[in-house]
Amino acid sequence: MDVVSLANNHSKDFFERGYQDTITSLEEEGIAYFGNEFNTIMEINGIRIGLFGLTLWGGGKEYERLIAKAIKDLRQRDAQLIIAYYHWGIERTYTPERYQRNLGHFSIDNGADLVLGSHPHVIQGIEEYNGRFIVYSMGNFSFGANNNPADHDTFIFQQSFFFENGVLLDTNDINIIPAFISSEKGRNNFQPTPADGEEAQRITQRIETYSSKLNG
Prior knowledge:
With about 220 residues, the protein is α/β, with parallel strands linked by helices. The protein has one domain (about 40-210). About 25% of the residues lie in helices and about 30% in strands. The strands form four sheets. Strands 3-4-5-6-8-7 form a six-stranded mixed beta sheet. The longest helix is centred in the N-terminal third of the chain and has 16 residues, at about 60-75. The radius of gyration is 17 Å and the shape is globular. The chain starts with a strand and ends with a helix. The relative contact order is 0.11.
């Protein structure tokens, strides 16, 4: 499934024309997209998956309204699984802000099945909440804005969802793949690379440490 989010603080760096050019390019390449004003349904193995994305710079009722509206729209379009993607948080902080946790919980309470996060540029923890997961920040991945960020650690989050007669079953089947944003140390060559051995263990331990503070 090839799909990208348009919801981030740089999507309109080149104003509305640049934003529309991005959408046109994605459509020409057959890459699905979601985020901002676009809620998207994709059908995978007969299951309708709904995706929405927002840029969230704080808490409050207005953001809650946007989240609830997006989830309601996808449910009305018969989505059987809903994934939320949020661009949120504070750069270079390893602990999610209180508003991130509040909006993550709100999203699950209102019907999201998975919440994924980005923007801090570093890893944050993963919270299990009411049988669902909130991945607060996956860190950088293929990141072209800095030729050597101080923190090269990242990870890939995988989750398998199982359905029976069209109904989502409770699942905690997740897999974390520790990785680096670059295949070389000391510089960023924009080639994300899985970690192995002691380095994989170190990154995994970081994720577990940050996550333990959210799941106590």
